[in-house]
Structure to design on (324 residues):
């Protein structure tokens, strides 16, 4: 289960306008540069590790670049509270005693000083992919504790799959106002149709369940997965976080259950309009929804819970591991 990020990391992320992450890495962009920040531990005086990414910049062999920083970074380095290392495609800056640095408002100026130093070295932020220089489908991503600016083509080359489910800004099936009703409608038809089919099967078996209990639960699990499957469309909504997508998938599943039950009861009573009087008589309505068979009642409840859970899981964007 994800854990809440440390309070200092939250404060630091807000001050630099970065995305917080339960994994312990905050990332985003500053002055156009991809920027990642992580902590050594959750204590108030933890060390903080900052890295900046840019396209490969080869320095002359044996040449030591002259690093020119603005305050307070030179003072922090003299006091042994900061270090800076400039590599071909990454600038690395650990800072000590995060709590003190936040209290004295030194971290943001130190980061800006590092970015200014990169500019003096001829290293500038770009809008293209850092790995192939393409301009299409570019996004800033984080993986394995590092941040990078990469295009969809390079991601597809790494993972060998299409990235339309990875939340890139360039890919979307449409707004939620259109997508959500479609998902709910399809799920409701599947949900209602499944239980209509179960009722028909039970009627042919004489109104009782003759299957082994374990087999019945496996069948129900498969039915719930089938009914929840349209929630995967939410993966195609641009910039949708995992938590929001899961909540959205679950809420749509709940709405689909209500509409699916309307279809189910319509089948039981013979007509859609016959449902209206039942809505004013909860006791009679429950007689339609809750059968006398206790196992079958548990099975229906289990299916509803499983349906909502699977829909939430289906809706989450996939995670991929990239070499950034």
């Amino acid at each position: 289960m994800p854990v809440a990020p440390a309070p200092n990391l939250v404060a630091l992320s807000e001050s630099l306008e970065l995305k917080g992450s339960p994994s312990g890495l905050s990332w985003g962009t500053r002055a156009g540069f991809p920027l990642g920040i992580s902590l050594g531990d959750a204590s108030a005086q933890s060390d903080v590790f900052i890295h900046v990414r840019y396209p490969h910049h080869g320095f002359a062999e044996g040449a030591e670049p002259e690093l020119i920083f603005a305050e307070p970074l030179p003072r922090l380095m003299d006091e042994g509270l900061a270090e800076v290392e400039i590599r071909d495609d990454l600038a690395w800056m650990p800072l000590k005693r995060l709590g003190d640095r936040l209290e004295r408002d030194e971290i943001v100026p130190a980061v800006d000083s590092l970015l200014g130093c990169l500019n003096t070295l001829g290293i500038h932020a770009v809008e293209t992919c850092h790995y192939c220089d393409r301009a299409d489908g570019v996004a800033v991503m984080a993986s394995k504790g590092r941040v990078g600016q990469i295009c969809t083509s390079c991601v597809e080359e790494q993972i060998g799959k299409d990235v339309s489910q990875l939340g890139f800004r360039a890919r979307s099936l449409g707004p939620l106002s259109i997508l959500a009703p479609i998902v709910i409608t399809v799920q409701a038809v599947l949900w209602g149709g499944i239980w209509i089919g179960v009722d028909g099967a039970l009627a042919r078996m004489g109104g009782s369940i003759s299957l082994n209990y374990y087999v019945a639960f496996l069948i129900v699990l498969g039915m719930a997965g089938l009914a929840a499957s349209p929630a995967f469309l939410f993966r195609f909504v641009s910039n949708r976080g995992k938590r929001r997508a899961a909540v959205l998938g679950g809420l749509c599943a709940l709405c689909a259950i209500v509409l699916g039950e309307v279809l189910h009861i319509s089948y039981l009573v013979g007509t859609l309009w016959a449902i209206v009087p039942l809505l004013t008589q909860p006791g009679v309505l429950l007689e339609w929804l809750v059968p006398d068979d206790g196992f079958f009642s548990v099975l229906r409840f289990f299916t509803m819970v499983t349906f909502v859970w699977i829909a939430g899981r289906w809706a989450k964007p996939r995670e991929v591991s990239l070499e950034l």
